[in-house]
Protein: Prepilin-type N-terminal cleavage/methylation domain-containing protein
Amino acid sequence: MKHLQNEKGVTLVELLAVMAMSILVVGVAYQILFSMFSSIDKSQANTMLRNEAAAIMLELDEIMLNLDEVETIPIDLNVNVPFDHFRVLDIRENSSGLPKTLSTEIEVANGELLVTYNGSSRTITDSSINASNTTFTLDKDGRLRVNLHIEDNASSETYTVFKIYEMENE
Structure:
C-alpha cells in the first residue's frame, strides 16, 4: 500500500476550530448591532418625549399668559395638595369697564391632558403619550406648580418637566 507524502487539506479539528471562531465572531457582531439598534430606539423615544413635553408646555404657557386665579375642580384650594382638574381664570375689563372673566379648564383624564375653552374640549397630548401622572399644586404663595410627567406608551420611556406659574397681581 502506498502512502501519500504530501497530503494537502484541512483536518476535521481545524475545520471545527474555524467554525467555532466564526460562530463567536457572528454572535459578538449580533450583540453589538442589537444593542446599537436598541440604543437608537431609546434615544428616538426620549427625543419624541422631550419634543412632546415642549409642545405641551408651550400650550400651557399660552393658557397661563394672563393667569389671575386658579380654581380647582371640585373647589378645594388646599395648599400643596396635588390635583388634576382646575380652571384658569383671566379677569379683564370689558369695553364698559366691568370685569369680564375668561375661563379655561385643564384636566388630566384617561392619560390625556384636556383643555376646555368656551365649551370646546381638545386634547393637547399625542395619542401615543400617557400623561396620567401629571399633577398640579398651589403653593402657599398662590403659585401654580405644574409637574408634567409623560410616558411613551410604546417604549415605556418617561420624561418629567416641572414649572411654576405666577398669578398676575392687578
Observations:
- The mean pLDDT is 87.
